[in-house]
Amino acid sequence: MSVSVLAQNLHGSEIIKIAGEINELKRQGQNIANLTIGDFDSNIYPIPEDLKLGIVDAYEHRHTNYPPADGMLSLRESVSAFLKSRFNFDYAPNQILITGGSRPLIYSIFMAIVDPGDKVVFPAPSWNNNHYCDLTRAEAVIIQTTPENNFMPTAEELRPFIKGATMLALCSPLNPTGTMFSKKDLEEICDLVIAENKTRQPGEKPLYILYDQIYSQLTFGQHRHYDPVSLRPELKDVTIFVDGASKCFASTGVRVGWGFGPAHVVNHMKSIVGHMGAWAPKAEQVAMANFLKDDNAVNTYLSALKIDIQKSLTALYEGFQN
To answer: Within 13 Å and on the Cβ side, how many CA atoms surround 192?
Structure first.
């Protein structure tokens, strides 16, 4: 039986397929450290206790009906304050979209910006950008990176390919390598985007940046997270961020993501997500709104989580060395 051309040419997520195979081997009793997918063993890395109790309390208070399609206002307000305290960002609640994790955010960004045949530039390795290009029938322009640059793209590597492109998809800290942009390297990329957009005619789509910073709270040592808008504020109108709770609060199954950016893009993303029905569960949104307001609880959890992650990283490193 024939199906759509899209379905015929679309492949499932490779990392999810591999993760499933590894989980089956673990179920059979094999002792494997599963590094295939960005998930946490909840027996080792439980979600914040205050968040867990908040979720239970929200269900007990029957927060089980539909949430607003763009997210609970209380959560969007909490995210707005969280972004201000963590990054000194100024994003109003109407510039924030809540979804069931980060995947609907990325898909809705592609859908809101990219037309069939548009060029989308992204580095390899990266996470699933090739599949979102397939879904939107975009032209995927894949930039091979090198270990010498920590697998992060440089302005010089991107320069030959961004002319006429619609979107530059970046991620830092990077899934799957864990490496991240230096200030200098990201500044040079930002300047490249600014220069390209100055060549665009009125009414022509600018070169947008999709900036996935879902791992931004999990940096170690002297390494610091950088973003395009903080480095070059003039990029605020063309940068759409992907963020959320899944990594920094070990809450992959809680499914609360938040995206933010210029209202003229985010409003279209809201409509797309509304048709998808890809919002986060209401009880989890209520609990997350309350948890994010408690800076002390957030900082305490992040400090403990990063200590535990460092222990795991050290054990893994020493195991390889041995």
So the answer is: 22
